[in-house]
Amino acid sequence: MSRISKIEYYMNIAKEISKRSTCFRARHGSIIVKDDQIISTGYNGAPRKTKDCFERGNCLRTELNIPSGQRYEMCRSVHAEQNAIINSARAGVSLLGGTMYLYSEKVVDDNDVQTIDAYPCFICKKMIINSGLDEVIVSRVDGKFKKHKIKDWADDWTKGDLLDDKETYSSGSSGNCCSSGNCCQK
User: Fold this and answer.
1) Which of 30, 74, 86, 140 has its CA 20 to 30 A from that of 47?
2) Which residue positions are annotated as catalytic (predicted)?
């Protein structure tokens, strides 16, 4: 009998959390772990006590033909990463030194979803840097996981600019997650 790794364990939980998403386009789930304990979770959905896209029966960004990865201010949803950070703050729990796990999938139609390379958008990336997390581990289409050290993001932006960032949500992240040595097998 084999046992799943801790990364698989936490990523499977993030995948389940993504199923609470209220977005017609994509489902994202995020958990934050500190000292081997889940301290916060989040999925993409409308702010508390407001109508989400399912309740409204439409996606404003789709109606306006806004491509994925653009014009986030026009979206009704709060991102999974943002919600995990916000939920931690609501509970008064420190994120310092924690790890975020992020799972993402694209909604093809009512009966079909496809795993996509998970990666935070620039807005979430800035929040993650400021939150004090140490790393983010993201799911990949190939079934592997990629670790991102938050210090590396901040160092890269110190040397260049956030616009120089080679990995972005809308680009689908970089192709080969193992080239940096930060890839985790299942």
Assistant:
1) 140
2) 81 (proton donor)
